[in-house]
Amino acid sequence: RIDVTLTPLDGTRPFKSGALYHLHIGASHQVVNIHPLDTQAGLYQLKLKTSIICNFGDRFVIRDPASSITLGGGKVIDTFVPRRQRASETRISFLKSANQDDEAALTTLLSNQPQGVNFDQFCACRNISEQWASTLLTTVAAISKPLAIDGCKHPILLGKPFYQTYAKRLNDTVASFHLTSPSQQGISESALSRDGELPGSYRLFEGILKNMLEQVVLKRTGTLIHAIGHSTALSREEEEFVAKIRPILLKSGRVPPRTRELVELTGIPLKAIERILNQTAKAGSLIQVADNRYYLPETVLELAEFTESLMIESKDEMGFSVIEFRDKSDIGRNLCIEILEYFDSVGFTRRDGNSRFVRTAKENIFAKK
Q1: CA angle 203, 223, 152 (to 5 degrees)
Q2: pLDDT band at 120 (very low <50, low <70, confident <90, very high)
Q3: In whole angstroms, what is the distance from residue 181 CA to residue 225 CA?
Q4: 23-35 per-position pLDDT tens digit
Q5: Which CATH number among 1.10.357, 2.20.100, 1.10.10, 1.10.530 corresponds to the domain 236-294?
Q6: Cβ–Cβ < 8 Å for 311, 357
Q7: What is the pTM of this model?
């Protein structure tokens, strides 16, 4: 699909969504469907049968189903069509703003796009060179906030007023959490994303949070996000943890005892120890990796560092397997699976068949106190 401006010739009938038309663009000839987006603005969407290479500004001609009469012509605006809300008010605003030269388009988009501008897509759509891309980034530096995203060559650009609004919303969400849960270290990243209610994809939230952590506006302890200077008073459960359980976990290292084994080692009844572990995890002093396994945050960080080193050692960028993780770590297979599934769940690793790959630096997920 490509979004375009299209001007019908005088005397031609309106385009029908279900009809097939002939598209002539460059050396390509395609049969397409035409869907109106905003006819007053001349905005349409072309649904192609096969992929073509085109860029912003490329001109084309539309002919009738018999390919005997020229019905109109136009130019390409955007080749990165969203899967949803293709005719939404925000999308129409995007297309109108994008229908300008590079600098004017980028400046306008930053002022009216609450989800920001994917600069990778902007450059690809317009076939922009690296030198011109660098110039554009310098030009809009005063009005934009660049958000580094893993896997993207260029940052997502967000208008500064939008960034300030979203950053305040996340700050307020964290502050509210501290008021309602004073005994807990912080809020999980997934809960902050949900409660913060930022527009667009999770990647936008991820970029804003990463920037706030780098600017030390917020802090991450273990996997929990909290305000700078926030501290919790030890609850009765945490005092018991520090006195009886933490020394055992420190000594056991990468293979902590199961919950029932902790019962035998401490003499604390099962229900009581489950309550202690649960409350201590909520406070951020423990991380629950599986139903019956809890790790100290510093041990999880050590395992993450080991995983990064294993990824570096892997050959031909084929990732690493559970067996390789087991053999190099001297941890049992079942526990290895639980550790790696936990890493998958928090976004540190991803599974692809029998292989796993590190998705991001460990510092982006885990942090020391």
Answers
A1: 25
A2: very high
A3: 13
A4: 999 889 999 999 9
A5: 1.10.10
A6: yes
A7: 0.68
